[in-house]
Amino acid sequence: MLYLAIVVVLGVLIFVHELGHYLAAKAVGIGVPRFSIGLGPITPLRWRRGETEYVISWIPFGGYVKMASKEEQDDVEALEGGRTEQDFPPEKLFESKSVPARIFVLSAGVVMNALFAWWAFTLLAFVYGGAETPITQLGRVDVEVLPEAARELAELPLGADVERVNGEPVATWDDILDQVLDPMSESLRFEFAGTVAPVDVAVPGIDMETRGRIALALRPFVEPRVGSVVAGSPAEAAGFRPGDLIVEIDGLAIGSWDQLVDAVKDRAGEELALVALRDGERIAASMTPVEEIDRDPLTREARRDPETGEPVMVARIGIGQRLPEPVYERFGPGAAIVEGARQTWDVAALVLFSLKGMVVGDISVRELGGPVVIADASAQAARAGLRYLLWFMAFLSVNLAVLNLLPIPVLDGGHLVFLAIEGVRRRPVSKELRLRLTNIGLYFLLALMIFVVVNDVLRLTGR
Length: 463
Prior knowledge:
The structure is a single chain. The protein has helices at residues 2-27, 99-127, 173-180, 208-217, 234-237, 257-264, 333-360, 371-384, 386-404, 412-425, 431-460; strands spanning 34-49, 52-66, 130-132, 138-141, 162-165, 168-169, 188-192, 199-201, 218-220, 226-229, 245-249, 252-253, 272-278, 281-287, 290-293, 313-316, 319-321, 327-329. Strands 6-5-7-8 form a four-stranded antiparallel β-sheet, covered by helices on one side. α2 (99-127) packs across α7, α2 packs antiparallel against α9 (386-404) and α7 crosses α9. It is α+β, with helices and mostly antiparallel strands. Helix content is 41%, strand content 20%. The chain folds into four domains: 29-96, no CATH class; 97-129 and 332-463, no CATH class; 138-220, Pdz3 Domain, CATH 2.30.42.10; 226-321, Pdz3 Domain (Roll).
């Protein structure tokens, strides 16, 4: 399943990207001697139709459309399976086309990835609708995540029912998060049902890090029901199952998931007596929580004691929460198209936010995932069903579109920078400079690939 899932996911997305370049090149009259899925040496899987040879190459992380050119053969020969010997007339060469035509060809892959994501999100919205969590009650405010600018929220009582955010009525937790993360609002105002006083937070829309931390700090009310049990955990050893409702720990009544977490987190190594309800019957069991490193939910970095600098340890019994069944909003064809565009834009904004966070140091580069992470996520999505697999492919397609626009030679963004310079200077960047910068870009990408693979291995080993 693992290998099949990653072949399907990456194969489709690479094909979509390269198909964009191919169709655009054909549209403006550029010759295409080779279309490849994969990089490097060519496998025996190859065939020819017309002027183009279609091949599968051995390195699976990428692909290319080799275009007719008198200049570019040596620059990327190793990556693109060696030289092609076909001769094309001058009018079919890449460099013979105008700068706008070449920009159109080079950007077509990114456009195709974005269009694929838009199509996939639109299809999911039309067939399945949008899922929303029907909760507006506050379960907890995580003060360790909450930014200083929003300290007023820490005083909210358990169960406070949010009625409006920035004057907009909210019916689901997703409505609340949409308002919190709205970059167009100049501040945040929370209004509640009953006697709870409104809370105003002065945070500008452009401060997405602060808003992201507010969204993470506000926890919806969730009952203390077991959603999953970690293999080899104390909960599994005690016989707990998904669906069990934990109602008591050492004689203390438990009414919410956050109360359950608070009752356990400082009790590592201590035997706890738990009572749960299963199909109306009381089940009593004992278990001893184990220590784990507490991690920041935004950066996944280990939280550290401000005095000693040592990682903060918390106790856990090895269960995951069960969220309420989502409510699905159905979309007609027109609304589905709009929803697909909205989700595509939201994912692109998330990718850009993450890249900015890594550049300025707000998000650790240790969060970068490589082929192992992608393969594992692909397999999990495939096991969950076609709906989740298609969503993951759309999400990954937007990532590929944004990352391909980075101004790194070898990537589309780097080539577009060369063309922008040519458009301004009225003459191309010299071949020698392009070759040097392309080699630097190639070495950078190889180093990045090694780094993310090491990251993947460290994740697997729990380091």
